[in-house]
Write a structure and sequence with these properties.
The chain is an all-alpha fold and 174 residues long. The chain contains seven helices and no strands.
Length: 174
Amino acid sequence: MNRGLAQDHFELLGLPVKYAVDPARLERGYRDLQSQVHPDRFASATQAERRVAMQWATRANEAFRTLKDPVERARYLLELKGYDTEEESNTAMAPDFLMQQMEWREAVADARAARDAGKLARLRGDIAQSRSEMLRMLERALDKDANFDAGCSLVRKLRFLDKIEDEIDEALHA
């Protein structure tokens, strides 16, 4: 447990500080760290050592959860670079994106009212395709172009997609 407390999530799990993450390397870094700090390894240690081990295990879990999720990873990386995604305060979006959101929301409401699970599933597929495209754009913006403002905008757009996907999931399970 000689890893410094000031380390960021990437360092903590032995990863380069960039958006594109190798999932196998992320998993391996997490497992390696957990094997060192898991509280079970400190069952017979002093209370202080157990507490420190628990803190490290908590940090490892948080780092893994954050870096595993592509949007959370982007948000975290932007934060490290000194950028605030302003998801709560900046809702300005391009008109074409806002129109697409309105169309999707209307289609979800119609499919929900008609209890049309097939239409909801197709909408989910359309949104998943848009999400994949935005994630590719996000990787380019953050890793290749160092365009962090574009990264912030894409994170905000992805948040909108998350909300629509949640509405579809809710409608499918109603």
